[in-house]
Specification:
Elements (H helix, E strand, L loop, with lengths): L3 H6 L31 H13 L6 H27 L10 H25 L5 E3 L8 E3 L17 E3 L1
Antiparallel strand pairs: 1-2, 2-3
Helix pairs in contact: 2-3, 3-4
């Protein structure tokens, strides 16, 4: 049954359905997100703390790169600390002195890299390190702002990783 207005106008379809449907456009290729856009919220917060505590200032994107690199160093150190807690077994239950020495070298390299990153990009910011795998590996000391993200308060500083 057609509507009376359609019969008067001589239309067989309702007025809103007269237009021909256009074919859908092909979806665009997904945008390739560059590495610089794949940071976590924690990296962004750490970058802001680095900029606030630094005397030299700097650009946010540079601070974000440093914060991300510090987080990677912290993860590496945490992994080595966990391995030290679990023991360095050769797979047969025997203690492996070689694995222990390799782990210690990797941990020292990661610590040196973290300190070099801060000295090169944000001189004057101090970093304290913890070796407990249950907690954070790095703490940025925040004497200017007093910001902290740990239960230790402003004395412990800003936790990285």
């Amino acid at each position: 049954m057609t509507h009376p207005a359609q019969r008067i106008a001589g239309l067989s379809a309702p007025p809103y359905a007269r237009k021909e449907a256009k074919p859908m456009a092909k979806p665009a290729k997904p945008i390739q997100v560059p590495r610089a856009m794949s940071f976590s919220r924690g990296d962004a917060e750490t970058a802001l703390v680095l900029l606030e505590e630094s005397d030299a200032g700097g650009r946010f994107i540079d601070a974000l790169d440093v914060a991300h690199a510090l987080a990677i160093c912290a993860r590496n150190i945490k992994r080595e600390c966990e391995a030290a807690c679990n023991g360095f077994s050769d797979g047969r239950g025997n203690w492996s002195e070689a694995l222990e020495q390799e782990s210690a070298k990797r941990e020292e390299r990661a610590k040196a890299r973290a300190l070099a990153l801060l000295d090169q990009n944000f001189p004057g910011i101090s970093l304290s390190m913890g070796g407990d795998p249950r907690g954070s590996c790095f703490y940025i000391k925040t004497p200017k702002s007093g910001k902290h993200n740990t239960w230790g308060g402003a004395e412990s500083g800003w936790s990285v990783g």
